[in-house]
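Hey all, quick one. A colleague (J.T.) asked me to put the zinc ion job into the tracker so the inputs and the structure tokens live in one place instead of scattered across chat threads. No bug as far as I know, just bookkeeping. Sequence used:
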Amino acid sequence: MQNANSYKKPVGRILKVAIWVVSIMVIVVLAAFVFQKQIFTFMATKIIQQRLLNPTYKKEDGLYAGLAGTGAPFADINRVGPCIVVEAGNNLYVIDAGPGSARNIGLMGFDMGKVDAILLTHFHSDHIAALGEMMLQRWAGGSNAKPVDVIGPKGVETVVAGFNHAYSLDASYRVAFHGAATVPPSGAGGRARPFDLSSEEDASIVVVDKEGVKITAFKVNHSPAYPAVGYRVDYK
Ligand SMILES: [Zn+2]
């Protein structure tokens, strides 16, 4: 009998442990099933953040595009206004300045201080709202002594002049606080570089041709917003 009891006790313990293990596994599987969407979103976010903070894509010379904003004019908790960052070799361009996108450019690992030019497709507010912030970041972020070029169809000069004026007081505060060596007064704001497309429906014009980067503006119909263009970027 003694032998039988001492044999039963370990079996009872093993059974208890097994029940616990199976119960925990069932709970984990059920939780994974119930929260599958949240788990997927969490893991996808972690992977994307890691890749953005460690941009291995920069190892190879090539043409790359980053979506800093893909939202529409209406408020969206997940998306800011339209903005595409284009990197080609050592050249960096930003296309459109949707609200909220200026901060994403830095968060994505791009150096706003090194931006060669900002290009605008048209002048709806949801494509230009972040222009002031972008021009400020490009100036202060790179201690640039020349204003950034802002390329766009005719009318861009009005937009740039407005933002330059609106940010003129802020620019004076920055110089007073950081000093002219960090933020050279001559580099504040933007310099409009308007282009004019001919009246033909399929009109296009090369607006950037530098170090193997060619950016061509072409007409698009976005009535009543006129003019409106798209940009094609070629590299090497
Ligand atoms: Zn629009």
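Adding what we noticed when we looked at it: The chain has two domains: 2-38, 60-235. The beta strands are 63-69, 83-88, 91-95, 117-119, 148-153, 190-195, 204-210, 213-219, 229-235.
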